[in-house]
Amino acid sequence: MTDELILQTILPVSHDLGGFKVHRTLPSRPRTMVGPFIFFDQMGPAHLDIGTGINVRPHPHINLATVTYLFAGAIDHRDSIGSVATIEPGAVNLMTAGHGIAHSERSPASERAAGPELSGIQTWLALPEADEERDPAFEHVAKAALPVIETPGARARIIMGSLWGQTAPTTTYAETIYADIVLDAGGGVPIDASADERALYVAIGDATLDGMPLEPMTLYVLRPGVTATLRSASGGRVMLCGGEAFTTPRHVWWNFVSSSRDRINQAKADWTAGNFPKVPGDDVEFIPIPAVPKTVSYP
């Protein structure tokens, strides 16, 4: 059964960031991408101490789009093109880096006072080669703008792309599917062959695919063309992601993604030299280039 449904199983690498953990399944040695998805992190779930919060200082990106989606908590986003937005559960922040952008992510003051919750998924999407050097952009899509498909015992919010006959308004550059599926005890939804590459990730609770148990915090890459039913015995939350298969490889080093290694080296030099634009309202601190990054591709 496993071989019929699952092409690859990718176990997470976990990092303790002081007060909360992130669990990373992409990029990995077994696989760098699923459709355009080249980075997949689960943040938390965590409840931070009163008066504290997350403080991700300004840092750079190129040739990718970041997608932030929360289950609980809130994050203040600021970037070098002047965008300011607070993301809350069920909404989407899509930041297109293009030829270069810097941004910061911090817990709002209102969240710090009570001890912030943090739970959600952050992903990066590789851009098609024709869009890698486009102008940077930022898009906040409110929870109410994202379509929700409801069946008895299950609800699926479409974050990006078209699924189950509905389409999210979120901008896509390559063919992309992305959904947040919440299953009640005994609930289920069909997973159709709707894209070249697809993967499932159990973020919370339990789930099975055609009766096969899926382990939490593990990315299951589905075989092309497979249709199956996702169910949960006691309740669960599952992310479905994927899209078109890229025909040319992407390289990853720290926060940089590109089809060109030389372009990544140029971005490293630009950040070190201070050539990226500053983040208005958050221009004092920054994250320096690491000697050994935790995010690398595995060619």
Overview of the structural elements:
It is a single chain. The chain has 299 residues and is mainly β. 8% of the residues lie in helices and 47% in strands. The protein contains three helices and 26 strands. It has helices spanning 2-5, 109-114, 261-273; strands at residues 6-10, 13-16, 21-26, 37-47, 55-61, 64-73, 75-79, 84-87, 92-96, 101-106, 117-126, 137-141, 148-151, 154-160, 162-163, 166-167, 176-183, 188-191, 197-205, 207-209, 212-214, 219-222, 228-231, 236-243, 251-253, 256-258. The strands form six sheets. It has a seven-stranded antiparallel beta sheet with strand order 1-22-19-24-17-14-13. The chain is globular. The model has no long low-confidence stretch (mean pLDDT 95).
Structural class: mainly beta
Tell me the overall shape. Answer: globular
Average the pLDDT over all residues and give the rounded result.
95
Lateral arrangement of strands in the main beta sheet: 1-22-19-24-17-14-13
Regions with little confidence, pLDDT below 50 for 5+ residues:
none
Q: Strand fraction band?
A: over 45%
If helices are DSSP runs of H or I spanning 4 or more residues, what is the number of helices?
3
User: What is the element string, with H for helices and E for strands?
Assistant: HEEEEEEEEEEHEEEEEEEEEEEEEEEEH
Query: Span from first to last CA?
Result: 30 Å
- Total strand segments: 26
Specify the helix fraction band.
under 10%
